[in-house]
Amino acid sequence: MDAMPSYWNTEQAAAFARLLLGATRQYGVVFFDDALRITAWNEGAHFITGWRAGEVLGRSTSTLFVPEDVERRMHEHEANTVRVVGVAEDERWHLRKDGSRFWSSGASMAIQVGDAQDTRFVKIFRDVTHLRTRMRYLENVQHECNLRQHEKNVFIGTIAHEMRNPLSPLKTALELMKRLPDPNPRHAQPIKIMDRQVGFLERLIEDLVDLTRVQTGKMSIAYGRAILQEVLFEALDACGSAAGSKGTTLHHVMPPVPIEVDVDASRLMQVVVNLLNNAIKYTPAGGNIWLSCTVDQTHFACYVKDDGQGIGAALLPRIFDIFTQADGTHAERGAGLGIGLSVVKEIVTLHGGTVEVRSEGEGRGSEFIVRIPQRHPRQADSGPRPPPVR
Prior knowledge:
Blueprint: H1 10-23, E1 28-32, E2 38-41, H2 43-49, H3 53-56, H4 67-71, H5 74-85, E3 87-95, E4 101-112, E5 119-127, H6 129-179, H7 188-216, E6 224-227, H8 228-246, E7 249-253, E8 260-263, H9 265-281, E9 288-295, E10 299-306, H10 340-350, E11 354-358, E12 366-373
Parallel strand pairs: 7-9
Antiparallel strand pairs: 1-2, 1-5, 3-4, 4-5, 6-8, 9-10, 10-12, 11-12
Helix pairs in contact: 6-7, 7-10, 8-9, 9-10
């Protein structure tokens, strides 16, 4: 056996050997020779397996292995791994004297005793059946959760599909009403309300569809060349009516020179619209919302800031989780489903970017920062780029 390290004195080594080989029941220690015959067996091995030393000395290490592993000669494979690698770590079912099985976790190593040609082995193992049982329980729980998630995704997808069917003729009828001359001015306000609510339903349906895509990993992006400012101005136009009806003011600050970026323009617009609508939702009448952007050598960043309700410290860490939202009682608009920000995070992540939120607390406003690479990394070598999106 190799000499003990300098930080082990003889007394410590002897005490450790007594503990491991005689006093402890938690660890089984088995010595065996090059022919895989058991040469020593500690009290822990007896306690775990039920075999006393006199019953196993001289027998093959296959005694510990379950029949199917013996048939596959896994006891030989374990020793061969030690010969080649120096150690064989393993977790598998082992056999007790009464025929029952236990989940063993341990390692086998080579030791030198006397002649350098005389190779011996030691196997140290413990019974972790309780951990194996717990792991299987958690696996079953995870499987059940996956099934429930799948059923929920199917349900949400069905609801979104069923909502789309009546929405389409409603939109068509509303457009016709808006184009027809109406001598009665009292109809203008109801039509305006219907138009706003139909738009809200349309966004809700799209969020539900995107939610199922996020949950199933099927959301994708289609890269193209776009002018960043144009995408952001489209988002502002899309949210202008909601901000106006709420009595909040949208401000914007854009770089004077057009910024060309490689993004999915429609998805980026969806991100900004969701963030702006979120700000409108939680900013009271008379409040302000700012949309700004900037660019550095590799990334562009968009900022959506408001002076509204703010976000409490307890909510900040999970603000991007699905079905998470602030207390709806403080939002003058519908409470919603709390899925918009999770969709935002998914789209930004698919672009290779990040999104973060800052807030000093409730009543002190909030700021969302989206940071995305200017160029799609795989598009650099893909030949000519498509023309800018106008």
